[in-house]
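Final report, closing paragraph on structural work. Over the funding period we assembled a curated collection of sequence-structure pairs, and we close with a single example.
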Amino acid sequence: MRMSEIIRARRRALGLTQEEAASRLGVTASAFNKWERGVSRS
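Its predicted structure, as stored:
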């Protein structure tokens, strides 16, 4: 399972939107979206 799939599955299991999950992690919604799509460089 790819990291992006794990992130998406965990967020959905917790019932969070991308914006809510990003806020909890202290990152932007845009950054979180990139993580879920697997396009981040970091």
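Residues 3-13 form the longest helix (11 residues). The CA atoms of residues 33 and 39 lie 9 Å apart. We thank the funder for supporting this effort.
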